[in-house]
Target: Thiosulfate reductase cytochrome B subunit
Amino acid sequence: MTNLSMKHQIKRGLLFAILLLSQVYAWAAPPALSVTASQQNQSCLSCHSDTDIHSIVTSKAHDKLQLSAEDYQESVHGGLPCIACHQSAPNSQGFDATPHQLAPQQNTRCEGCHAVMLHDTITAENASVHQQKIEQGQFTCTACHDAHTMSSGVISHPSKTQIAKSNQTCINCHSRAGVYSQLAKGKSATKQDLAHKMLPYSEQHLASLRCIDCHVAANDETLHKILPASQAVTCEQCHSNSALLIQRQKTDIALFPSTPGSLLGKGLFDDSQLQKKLANLPVTGEKTEQVQTVKGTLFSNTYMIGSNGSNHWDKLYLYALVTFIGLLICHGLGRVIGRKLLKRSHENASEDKIYLYTLLVRCWHWLNALCCITLLVSGIALHFVTQRFATWVNIHNIAGLTLCAIWVLFIIAALSGNGHHYLVRWRGISARLYRQTRYYLIGIFRGEPHPEHPSQQSKFNILQQLGYIGIMFALVPLLIVSGLLMLFPEYSPTKIFGWPGKQIIAYLHYALALIMLMFVIVHLYLCTTGDSLGALIKGMIDGFHRSKKMK
Model:
């Protein structure tokens, strides 16, 4: 009985010990993480959620002390207690002291949890100018990424709001003189060109681009290898057909590979062991999406010069232009052959001169021609993204604004009495159109006289008159208006007939420029159709229109 009672007592003692230990474990072990984190963080947030909190040390310029409890709970780390990352230093007062005496950050760095999946990102960041120039330990992931408020699972093709928020991260350090000087080892913040004055449309660039779009290495898909300002991407890299910006903001970048075997060849694991394990996995063909991609609105209503165009339409127009120039060359050769066959001589003909073009008209004409040619050349340079892109932008804008002033002078001159040259005489217009068209297609080869001659009452034949009316009163105004809306895109309508306004305006400007190019070519050719090859050109130099009259 004694042994039996002793056994019962031992069993009861063990059971009591187990129950006691289980209660101690239950008391010591944390309950559900979401509840414990909220409770444990209350003491921290009681101070850190106060908007009046401020730092009393400057050891880390980018540290942020104020934190909204709601923002933290909604963040990716909202289910973690603060002490998961912020720990007291051994043998110290820890959180009881102000400033807190914390353990070295190396023990709780982001890499501790994210090193495997973000291996490429961390490698790129370690090669960035921030790590190369800033004192060791002064720049970490949290300098740019707020671990307390960042959301999870979204790679966003940025909208305007997201761009501004992204850039604010950079501005927080670069625009604060004391912070920048501390991180840059004494370099003055005033030596930076934060306004980016070297950029055409600097305000639009800063509002539409993230800092990392230009200051990250062109071949860095992680967007973390920040380069010095002197090595920023060039205009051509973004505005060309293979636009770097388009690729970065419209193409899904696989920052987080999630397919089997995606970590092979990275030097992170034993590849042979991984391959053996992968061989036993069932082949489903399905890809697990760990990151949701959300498209923003940056490219929904915009036109980026050099990369929004269409090579297909460019080629079609080029073929048409070459064909058209070929026809003009054939027409010119036909005139030369016709003169030789007719053997008609103007040696005995007298030259008749009439003063038609005043000095003001001639100056206006040559300045207008210079602007048009400059706009066409610079427009081609921009459309096909040549070297010195920014310089061509400035040239194009200056020439365009000058053309605006010239066109205003043209309208003033037309209203002041010169406009009668553009008044069409509708009576007998069909016959006049027929005679002039027949002359250019047939009569000019036979050496026939011009059906209409310039005079003080009308300087132009009917085809010239209709052409100049269309150019000066329709095409040029549309070019100017569309160009000004591209120069000041904030005034562009959001929608035109249900289509994105900025894109419609840009394509209209492009189409009008193509028509203008055709007109300039025709105009230059027709300058050779006077009674002599250079008669019309001489007239625009000295003001006299020359014609031959047989004695």
User: Anything to note?
Assistant: The CA atoms of residues 329 and 525 lie 9 Å apart. The chain has three domains: 33-49+59-123, 151-261+288-300, 311-550. The domain at 311-550 is CATH 1.20.950.20 (Fumarate Reductase Cytochrome B subunit).
